Amino acid sequence: MLRGYQGASIYVTDMNARMLQRFYDMGIRYITTRSVGYDHFDLDKARELGIRISTSPYSPDSVANYSIMMILMACRRAGQIMDAYRMQDFTLPGKRGKDISSATVGVIGTGQIGRTVLKHLSGFGCRLLACSPHEYDEAKQYARYVNMETLLRESDIITLHCPARENTYHIIDEQAIRQMKDGVILVNCARGTLIDTEALVSGLEAGKVGAAALDVVENEYGLYYNSFVRQPMANRELALLRSFPNVYLTHHTAFYTDEAVREIDENAVRGCVLFDRGEPNPYEVC
After folding, report:
1. Exactly one of 52, 115, 161, 220 is catalytic; which is it?
2. Banded model confidence at residue 60, pLDDT cuts 50, 70, 90
3. Which long-range contacts (CB under 8 A, 24 or more apart) does 37-44 make?
4. Backbone dihedral region for residue 88 (phi beyond 0: left; psi -120 to 50: alpha; all else: beta)
5. Which is the catalytic residue, given 52, 161, 191, 218?
6. Percentage above 70 pLDDT, the chain
7. What is the DSSP string of 93-104?
8. Is the pLDDT of residue 68 over 90?
9. pTM surpassing 0.90?
10. Which residues are 33's β-sheet partners?
11. 205, 252, 270, 284: which one is catalytic?
């Protein structure tokens, strides 16, 4: 499909050095990814080859609202309730939840999505804390910026909205979990590498982590967006997470709304058109 073309639009494919070299050898000089994140690219290799890379941004509402949905599901034990209902178990024991309005919610990362989460959570009346390398006046309308230690120590619920970078790799590790409240709820609709899965499993087993709601996991490339019905799944960590009744897992679908997909497609095409015209693209990252 690539032969004879200079540009390509891809989804979240592992664009490692070997893959980029193959694209380059086919004549590709411009790639637009239909995603906001671009951690699936080897940017050093792209720069070496002179391949330009751009993202396809979309409204933060889809991921922000999905994150809040995951928070509410974890707080109210929605999975356990629905599973029991299917079994015609209409009793109450084991189904009592927590009210988000009386909770302290910590938001790590206050980019567009993180700020939208804060804005929308403010309507629930919960106490909001934020931690981010950059502080925004918009976020300060709803939350108090604190350091990481304070956020970990005081939050009943922690939701992650950071990009995948070297300095955010395993930002939630064994040490971070030790600093959290007993029974903390962890939510991640950002990138799987933000959480050390082994540390999370240990926290769940010890009861330190009361619940986890994850739309992303480590090592999800090649797994999510494919069907493995009646096949063994080559991800032991995910299989272990699935065994916990207080872990809510979805397969990187937080972005997946009619509105977001339309914006993604439009910006992907726009990136290719701007490249073809030799015009600047504000969404280029390389």
Report:
1. 220
2. very high
3. 37/12, 37/163, 37/164, 37/191, 38/285, 38/286, 39/163, 39/164, 39/165, 39/191, 39/193, 40/12, 40/13, 40/14, 40/15, 40/221, 41/15, 41/286, 42/15, 42/16, 42/17, 43/285, 43/286
4. left
5. 191
6. 100
7. TT-----GGGSE
8. yes
9. yes
10. 10
11. 252
pLDDT at position 249 over 90? yes
Strand positions, DSSP E, 125-284:
127-131, 144-145, 157-160, 184-188, 209-214, 247-249
Burial 56-94 (b: 16+ CB within 10 A, else e): bebbbebbbbbbbbbbebbbbbbbeeeebeeeeeeeeee
220 annotated active-site: yes
Q: What pLDDT is recorded for position 174?
A: 98
**For position 280, what pLDDT does the model report?**
92
User: What is the token pair recorded at 160?
Assistant: 């992650």
pLDDT tens for 149-167 read: 999 999 999 999 999 999 9
Instruction: Identify whether 279 is a catalytic site residue.
Output: no
Give the integer Cα–Cα distance in Å for 286 and 269: 17
